[in-house]
Amino acid sequence: MNAESTTVATTPQLDIRNGKATIRLNRPAQHNRLEPADLKELTRMFEELGRDPEVRVLIITASGKSFSAGFHLGALADDPEAAKDYDPDAFENMVNALENMPTPTIAALNGGTYGGATDLALACDFRIGVEGMRMFMPAARLGIIYYESGMRRYMSRLGLNAAKRLFLTAETIEADELLDIGFLTELVAGDELEARTDALASQIAANAPIAVAGLKQGLTALACGTFNAEAHQAIRKTSAESEDHKEAIAAWGEKRRPVFKGR
């Protein structure tokens, strides 16, 4: 997954196969930093893929040796005209769109993950990293107070102590410790990343889509303190009355693998 898909830097690239969507960040020479155009494209992709019933799981990875250096802080200074139309909440809105997708998401972190890219990774349901990778959150070093939803994700995924350490010290954290503190859900050798990610994506995609979406949304809401019991009961009822539930019961009795259609 760290192979460069093209020698020319582009906005993120999308590929969909067998119910699995893959978004690849593709500015390897700049450590896949995110430009204003990338934020718009990613937000559009997340919203459209979240509405596509054929997409069972989303993988986010990158070209080259780094996952991402986060937002290009000099982009607006380099292009004053683009700065006039830039939404200061664009990065936060993009990451929130990722977190709010009903589709399960996997960050295949092929290398270093820095700045806002750490929040992009935390917005995913699973984060598979490679040996030798690093991360750091430089907000305090840059004189930046981070946006609310990003701090919430750090808190809900990593806990108060780890969140304070990462934000207030701006220190670099190595791969093994990233696994220990929960930033990574798995750590693999670099040449195993693609196979492990595909195996996990296939395992998730084989489950009932309505149930998976409802479970994901319920668990995230519980972790963030936004759980809505009435909405949860409604999705439980929809799942219980679905064709997929009937198929699951039939397959269980017949000792075969169920074939789910998302309805």
Description:
With 263 residues, the protein is α/β, with parallel strands linked by helices. The chain folds into two domains: 13-205, 2-enoyl-CoA Hydratase, Chain A, domain 1, CATH 3.90.226; 209-254, no CATH class. The chain has twelve helices and ten strands. It has helices at 36-51, 75-78, 80-84, 90-99, 116-122, 148-158, 160-169, 175-180, 193-205, 209-224, 229-240, 243-254, and strands spanning 13-17, 20-25, 57-62, 66-68, 105-109, 112-114, 126-130, 134-136, 173-174, 186-188. Strands 1-2-3-5-7-10 form a six-stranded mixed β-sheet, with helices on both faces. The protein has a four-stranded mixed β-sheet with strand order 4-6-8-9. The chain is globular and about 60 Å long.
Short overview:
The protein is an alpha/beta fold and 263 residues long. The protein has 12 helices and 10 strands.
CATH architecture of the largest domain: Alpha-Beta Complex
Q: Helix count?
A: 12
Helix content: 40-55%
CATH superfamily of the largest domain: 2-enoyl-CoA Hydratase, Chain A, domain 1
Q: Helix and strand string, N-terminal first?
A: EEHEEHHHEEHEEHHEHEHHHH
Q: Could you report the average pLDDT, rounded to the nearest whole number? A: 92
Main sheet attributes: strand count, strand direction, barrel closure: 6 strands, mixed
Strand order of the largest sheet: 1-2-3-5-7-10
Q: Spans with pLDDT under 50 lasting ≥5 residues?
A: none
Strand content: 15-25%
Overall number of structural domains: 2
The general outline is globular
CATH level 1 name of the largest domain: Alpha Beta
Could you say what the CATH topology of the largest domain is called? 2-enoyl-CoA Hydratase, Chain A, domain 1
